[in-house]
Write a structure and sequence with these properties.
The chain is an alpha/beta fold and 311 residues long. It has 2 domains: 144 residues, Quinone Oxidoreductase, Chain A, domain 1 (Alpha-Beta Complex), CATH 3.90.180; 120 residues, Rossmann fold. It has 8 helices and 17 strands. The strands form 4 sheets. Strands 3, 5, 6, 8, 9, 16 and 17 form a 7-stranded mixed sheet that branches. It has a 6-stranded parallel sheet with strand order 12-11-10-13-14-15, sandwiched between helices. Strand 11, helix 4 and strand 12 form a beta-alpha-beta unit. The radius of gyration is 20 Å and the shape is globular. It holds the Pfam family ADH_N. One of its GO terms (molecular function) is bacteriochlorophyllide-a dehydrogenase activity. This is 2-desacetyl-2-hydroxyethyl bacteriochlorophyllide A dehydrogenase.
């Protein structure tokens, strides 16, 4: 079986290619992908060639870890059934072509245990579950008490705020880009230069490696900085300010399956809204333009590729 897939031959050279899929085994399922998302964090680093050394790194590669589709073939030991709508967190099924993270394709073969059934009603919004799970994982590592700050009002920042508000918290958001501050938010989104508050917990969703000293300076004594972005540059901080505040710094790693299950249930029940986060859509055949828009247009919060017209 073959699939149309996005392939990065080398940095800033991207297109569609017809790739042979690995033959599925008894524990695997084959998924016809409907939509896949473009990450402006890790995938931007892959695109630009600035990705730090990472397991499986190398070109050519198939990017993408935010795919939603329908199971069209299910092995007897896969635990899946034909017709299920599933979230696919990437795949490695393209033979010699690396799958990092391997989700941007018309069809995917994956171990059934990696696939997460989701409500069909989520539609294209289902691609946001990876970021929602990332947000949940970042929040779950510490108690949310006292004043809360989220840094960055992209999709991850907005999902962090939505999950915090579900839990009864009332965070403030820092955003330097006036276009992303907006005027219709139900919570304060402010220019950092206009804020001198001290916070008990600061969650950085910006991925800006140069912010750490600024964030530590805004902590209450004993406060915590949570690093929820993906950082291409080494992080460092001046010790005296951290010492005076007895600051805690925590790295939020990749989400775990239970995080994905939790946010899928919340989104399916309506407790967590995924609305108004996908701002741009392109047919998969226009993938090169879609990636350039996702990485270069400040008005693009989230771009998705629509695979339903692909063979």
């Amino acid at each position: 079986m073959h699939a149309q897939a996005v392939i990065l031959d080398r940095p800033e050279r991207l297109g569609l290619a017809d790739l042979a899929l690995d033959a599925p085994g008894p524990a695997d399922a084959t998924v016809a992908v409907a939509w896949s998302g473009i990450s402006t964090g890790t995938e931007r680093l892959l695109w630009s060639g600035r990705m730090p050394d990472f397991p499986g790194m190398g070109y050519p590669l198939v990017p993408g870890y935010e795919s939603v589709g329908v199971v069209v073939e299910a092995g007897p030991d896969s635990g899946r059934r034909v017709g299920e709508t599933v979230f696919v967190p990437g795949a490695r099924c393209f033979g010699p072509v690396r799958g990092l993270f391997g989700g941007a394709a018309s069809h995917l073969v994956s171990a059934g245990s990696r696939l997460r059934p989701i409500p069909e009603s989520l539609g294209e919004r289902g691609i946001l579950l990876a970021l929602a799970a990332t947000a949940r994982h970042a929040l779950a590592g510490s108690e949310g008490q006292g004043r809360q700050l989220v840094v960055g009002h992209g999709v991850l920042g907005r999902l962090l705020v939505r999950l915090m508000r579900v839990s009864g918290l009332d965070p403030v958001v820092w955003e330097r880009d006036p276009a992303r501050r907006g005027t219709q938010q139900a919570y304060p989104v402010i220019d950092p230069a206009q804020d001198d508050t001290a916070y008990a917990r600061i969650i950085d969703a910006s991925g800006d490696a140069g912010l750490l000293d600024t964030l530590i300076a805004r902590l209450q004594p004993g406060g915590e900085v949570v690093l929820a972005g993906f950082y291409e540059a080494p992080l460092s901080f001046a010790f005296p300010a951290a010492f005076l505040r007895e600051a805690r710094i925590r790295v939020a790693a990749q989400w775990q399956p239970h995080d994905l299950d939790a946010v899928a249930a919340m989104a399916g029940s309506g407790a967590l809204s995924l609305d108004q986060l996908v701002t741009h859509r392109r047919p998969a055949a226009e993938a090169p333009d879609a990636y350039r828009t996702a990485f270069g247009d400040p008005d693009c919060l989230k771009m998705i590729l629509d695979w339903r017209a692909q063979p």
